Amino acid sequence: MAINDVIVNRLILKEYLVLLPNQTRESVRKLLNPADPQDVPRAIKLICAVADLCTLNTSTFNPSQMKTIAALQLISTLFHAMIELFVNLNLSLFEQMCAKISTGD
User: Fold this and answer.
1) 75-79 long-range CB contacts below 8 Å, 24 or more apart?
2) What's the rounded Cα separation, in Å, for the pair 59 and 28?
3) DSSP readout, 30-71?
4) pTM of the full predicted structure?
């Protein structure tokens, strides 16, 4: 997938997911290289991890990294809106509709 001339692939995700405080190289490897490609709980964990990329502190990134993280944070925002509908039971109807609209559904 390409966003703003940044190709987001497994290598890019691997490089940035490991920067999250709750991820290690091993946990990221398991998320991106599943033994079972139909492992739904693992896929949900991957979506949640990508959604967490919007929380990265970007103050130490160089301009090239900023371009990449901007693309990743766009995906992160989309994934966050998508999962928020299903995991947050406290959303008002208005907030649910805003999240649904954000996903393009």
Assistant:
1) 75/1, 75/3, 75/8, 75/50, 76/50, 76/51, 76/52, 77/102, 78/102, 78/103, 79/47, 79/48, 79/50, 79/51
2) 23
3) HHHS-SSTT-HHHHHHHHHHHHGGGG---TT--HHHHHHHHH
4) 0.79
Return the residue matching tokens 């990294």: 65
Beta bridge partners of 3: 6
Query: How does pLDDT run across 36-89, given as a tens digit for each residue?
Result: 888 889 998 999 999 999 999 988 999 989 999 999 999 998 898 888 777 777
How far apart CA 42 and CA 37 sit, in angstroms, is 9
Instruction: Determine the 3-state secondary structure of 7 from DSSP.
Output: strand
